[in-house]
Amino acid sequence: FPDRVVPMLPEALSNGMCSLRPNEDRACLAVQITIDKQGKKLSHKFFRALMRSKARVTYEDLQSTFDSKEKIQSSGDFIGKLAIPLYGAFNALHTARLIRGALDIEVPEMQVQLDTKGNVESIKDRGRLDSHRLIEEFMVLANVCAAETLEEKKYPCVYRVHDVPNKDKVDGLRLNLEAFGIKLIKGQVITSKSFNDILKNAAKHDAKETINQLVLRSQSQAIYSSNNLGHFGLGLRRYAHFTSPIRRYSDLLVHRALILAHNYGTPDTDTLIS
């Protein structure tokens, strides 16, 4: 809803145990990851821990702090101190994303503005910042680590899979693109790079948003499966949702599997707070 949030879990959980309230301890399942300057993962390790959030930081707060170089240098707060290494890690991961050719579809997210009486006042594009992409890249890497660990320890894994687009959808996209003067050569092997080339050609096109939507609709639907098909859109061989347990039950399944795989506890005792 544009003016409120309805929690999917009981309030005692969504606003209590599962919420990251500043300066309160929270049980968590964490992963420590080491990457090189090209964004290649060198190692990772899962462990149970207690975490304490230092403050509630919005995407806009983080972005403005990073953009204010002078503020960072003179800042004594922890946001300023963390901004540079956070964005440094993000840039490395973004480089790795470009190298593997992950899909780069940009579909604007709309924000509804209401007046004091609850009527729609305006609908505008919600700006997409590097701080949004930063969090996404960290989450994607953590999800990859979860899938790799469960495979290595030979535990069942609920993968998030995204198959290659089927022929009929690609043929339909080809016909639609011709109307915009963009060619998708028939008979070529379809890869994520093929779609990125289309999006690059459409970057300055008047119908840029429409073309992005067409490419998005030509994709296969991402699903959950115990059969690993890889993730075509992200250009990854294995991928499992590990982050955001408040929103998705699949995350809880992956958390439980990781806890059992590491012998961190039994499902009927302490895995419920993972």
Q: Please, could you describe this protein's structure?
A:
The structure is a single chain. With 274 residues, the protein is an alpha+beta fold. 41% of the residues lie in helices and 15% in strands. The protein has helices at 11-17, 59-67, 69-74, 78-100, 130-152, 167-178, 192-201, 208-217, 249-261; strands spanning 25-35, 41-52, 109-114, 120-126, 159-161, 223-225. Strand 1 and strand 2 (41-52) form a beta hairpin. Residues 269-274 have low confidence and may be disordered.
Draw up the topology in text.
Layout: H1 11-17, E1 25-35, E2 41-52, H2 59-67, H3 69-74, H4 78-100, E3 109-114, E4 120-126, H5 130-152, E5 159-161, H6 167-178, H7 192-201, H8 208-217, E6 223-225, H9 249-261
Antiparallel strand pairs: 1-2, 3-4, 5-6
Helix pairs in contact: 2-4, 4-5, 6-8
Brief write-up:
This protein has 274 residues and is an alpha+beta fold.
What is the C-alpha radius of gyration, as a whole number of Å?
21 Å
- Determine the N-to-C terminus distance: 28 Å
Sheet with the most strands, sense and barrel status = 2 strands, antiparallel
**Beta-strand fraction estimate:** 15-25%
Annotation, overall tally of beta strands: 6
> How many helices in DSSP terms?
9
Mean pLDDT: 88
Oligomer type: single chain
**What is the helix content?**
40-55%
**Strand numbers in spatial order across the main sheet:** 1-2
Shape: globular
Structural category: alpha+beta
* Low-confidence runs: 269-274
Order of H and E elements: HEEHHHEEHEHHHEH
